[in-house]
Design goal:
Strands 2-3-4-7-6-5 form a 6-stranded antiparallel beta barrel. It has about 110 residues and is mainly beta. It is about 10% helix and about 55% strand. The protein has a single domain, classed as predicted glycosyltransferase like domains (Thrombin, subunit H, Beta Barrel). A hairpin with a 6-residue loop joins strand 2 and strand 3. The two termini are about 20 Å apart. The chain is built from 1 helix and 7 strands.
């Protein structure tokens, strides 16, 4: 798996960093699931692209590999917008993530 990291220059409380990682997600009804490509990440959330928009306010379970660890999280969809005729970017706020997994994310975005 290829991983790319680059800080996005934004004025946010929690800076986001560009990443190219594959993720798996499962929506609230277990039918809205699939594979997606993450675009950026912070210690508070992740953005990834899907073929269909996600519903704002819904919870989603996420799994992805970061370095040699598999990160598991539950997040809440806080925004979803169409980027082109085929994809939607979805902003997910982490609402449940293991402290060790959060530390792994923090280590990678600080380097």
């Amino acid at each position: 798996m290829k991983e790319n990291y680059k800080k996005i220059n934004e004025r946010r409380q929690f800076p986001r960093y560009n990443v190219t990682i594959s993720i798996s997600y499962i929506g609230p009804d277990d039918r809205a699931s699939g594979e997606a490509q993450a675009k950026n990440i912070s210690t508070r959330g992740i953005c990834f692209s899907t073929k269909k928009p996600m519903h704002i306010g819904h919870n989603v379970r996420i799994a992805f590999s970061f370095a040699t660890e598999t990160i598991l999280s539950t997040g809440k969809v806080v925004w979803s917008e169409k980027t082109d005729s085929y994809l939607f970017d979805n902003g997910i706020e982490f609402i449940s993530i293991d402290e060790e997994h959060l530390k792994i994310i923090e280590q990678y975005i600080k380097t």
